[in-house]
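Researcher: Good morning. I'm working through a list of sequences from a screen, and I'd like to move beyond sequence-only analysis. For each chain I'm collecting a predicted structure so we can compare shapes side by side. This is the next one on the list. No need for commentary yet; just the structure.
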Amino acid sequence: IGQLGAGDGFEFVTISLLLPLQMSPYLVQFNQLSLPFMLSVFIATGYIAVIGVPLYYLKVARSRYQKPRSRPEFSGYMKALIILVAYLGLFAFITYMFGFKLISLILLLLLAVPSAINVMYEKEIGEGMIKMVPVSQFDDGDLIATNLLGRTELAYLTSKYRGFGRLVTIKLIRAMHGEKRRLPVYKNAVPLALLTFFGIVISLMFGNLLLIII
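Model: Good morning. Structure tokens for this chain:
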């Protein structure tokens, strides 16, 4: 949804300058192949996001709507099945190339199951990220969920307000001053900086998770 800003880029650059290469991790000892530390952080951060973010937003959606959709749509089941089969194929390939390792199976399952949940409850997770807010509560840098606007409404707003789009800017806020309608805005996004912090901790403790899997 575009939740990656310039501040995150500066954070990545700073981490890369402080720790250019993956050091020997504190809790496990194996060759890190002199890979960039930032690569380990990217992988670990993504790992945390895949596991934690869908579960967090499902909880938010349930608390907000009380009665979320009890069963996913058929297409959601099919997407989840495709993901599970893909991970099973990946595990079979890794086992064929490097031999069976229980830790590989566990780490891949910890990715496969939340990924399947993510696609099955995509609508609820999206709703958990979004709030309907008036223009007066817009903040510079907010993201409007334009995909949730009707075609007619989107065409009207685009024609009336120059520069109207996903990104909220100071200029757009000033242009839309006095607008009464509420719009869907991503207000409940988990900060990437928080996920990155956990990614750094995991990389320092365990090294590159991809190397553990293979």
